[in-house]
Amino acid sequence: MADEVEAPYGSWVSPITTDLVVSESVRLSQTKLVSGILYWVESRPEEAGRCVLVRRLPTGEFEDLTPDGFSVRSRVHEYGGGAYAVGDGFVVFSNDQDQRLYIQKFGEEPTVLSPDGLHRYADFVIDTCRCRVVAVCEDHTNEGSEPTNTLVSIDLKSGRIETLASGYDFYSSPCMDSACLRLAWLCWNHPNMPWDGTELKVANLNSTGGIIEEDHVVGGVGESIFQPLWSPEAVLHFVSDRTGWWNLYKSYEGQAQPLAPMEAEFGVPQWAFGLSTFGFLDDGRVIAAYTENGNWKLGCLDSDGLAELPIPHASISTVSVWGDEIAFIGGSPTQSNAVTLLSLKTGRYESVRGSSIATVSKGFLSQPESIWFPTQAGRKAHGFFYPPMNESYCPPPGDFPPLLVLSHGGPTGATTSELSLNIQFWTSRGIAVFDINYGGSTGFGKAYRARLDGEWGSVDVDDCVNGAQYLVDAARVDGGKLAIRGGSAGGYTTLSVLTFRDLFSVGASYYGISDLEALAKETHKFESRYTDRLVGPLPDKLTLYRMRSPIHHYESLSVPVIFFQGVEDRVVPPNQAEMMVNALSSKGVPVAYLTFKGEQHGFRQAENIKRAMEAEYYFYSRIFGFDLSEKITPVEIENIA
Fold this sequence. Notes:
It is a single chain. The chain is α+β, with helices and mostly antiparallel strands. It has a domain at 5-17 and 360-624: Rossmann fold, CATH 3.40.50. Helix content is 15%, strand content 35%. An 8-stranded mixed β-sheet has the order 30-31-34-33-35-36-37-38, sandwiched between helices. Strands 2-3-4-5 form a 4-stranded antiparallel β-sheet, with no helix packed on it.
């Protein structure tokens, strides 16, 4: 463009400010269509991360159902999800602050149901025939011991609690047929995570709701089952990865009958409760979301097979179906996540509530490139590359942009190409971003997911390094200005890359892991045996744990790192960051450490999210030597001139 200003990469002035990213955005989750009414949960940074249950009335108006002083969030498994259920004229929900269960009639204040906050609840299903709710219960009454998980019922009038199923380490996904005669659920034991292996159980219920006969349907230690759901004809459907791909099945004459065999994933890792990828139309057809090569699609399954529906989304989650309407949360490379409603009858497609009301000119939005790049053992790994984009600026001739590699959490997670202002914050300032689905990520089949078994801290590290090197070799980025950042497990990958490889110049760790042994001993129940598969069982593999823990090899780390940590984090406690900060500080390596009171695993408060983003940008500017594009409160950096 003729009016472009020439300026170094990283220093471009952008309209995508931290205020824009934070103050005008919410986190959307848990969509439900109930009796034609659309419900969802909004986590609002401007309200200190309070989670509000919202519904859209038939008039089209929005209504906040959750009054001030309440927040719809469960902490079962620490990650929560599945925090509410809708009944006839009421909702049942878990309240964040006290973790007690409440019932709220529409138009009235919530009334407490559960006796204390030492019993946490999630994944609710209303038993309309018996005036009760069935839920997963996590019992924290035995202080100093691992909490106990069970499947329970809670009477909606008396609050009486009865145990329905027990004996397994974990439970999830209870679902009841429309006649209230049969209950299905998932369960599994240590050391499995739900994407490793789960069992699908089904039970007949007596008139009072007690279990009188329980059967094992499918699943086991090596087969992951996801989202059991009864069809209108009371046929149990589910997702299984028995072929190497999470595909759709139904239980027919005691056998698992495949419905749409294909190299695609109809399931997702159950990091939270209440996840769903499919539902039923009134006529029994299945509406299902599935992902291929990192991009999500929506299809309609009937006797003729699976037909893709024409929608513009690259990410789809929490699918809910009622009548001929489909609700989900979806995003595309040009649209942030939004609560979306699709009518098959009219063909009308509507974005009901966006996660951001910000509008940004396309001239400031970088479009993702899906890239498969070579990595170790002759394999390929995947990522989305975002080149710098700002219609007002151009770089000096011959310059290449800095690169920020994103290492997602989990590590069993995945990244998509939906519009993220968090990514565009960087690209609009002249910093390229490579969002990598390293080996172990979901969405590419079981074999890809299993690459990380026993290889955490190796495969993920190699893929991030090889992804960056691929872009350097292709003359897309500056090989002397490479940064990497990640949160939680992604923070571990970040610290491992910086410690055990010498390609990157700087890094940012958000509540990242530095000591695998400490993680295995100190983390919460849900993940307490996760490292058995990712690294190996303790104490047999103690040497390997220490070999792959950055804290034991800080003498090899000689590049600057900035750390961000929530004070109340129980998934990755603050001492993980503090050990690394102290080690780097004593060694004389430039290091910065920011802590945030009131934050847990992941930041929810607007001011903290904003401060972390600005501090990271400030840190990179000092290391890479470019001018800031805006005024930012300086960060205290130890050992820097």
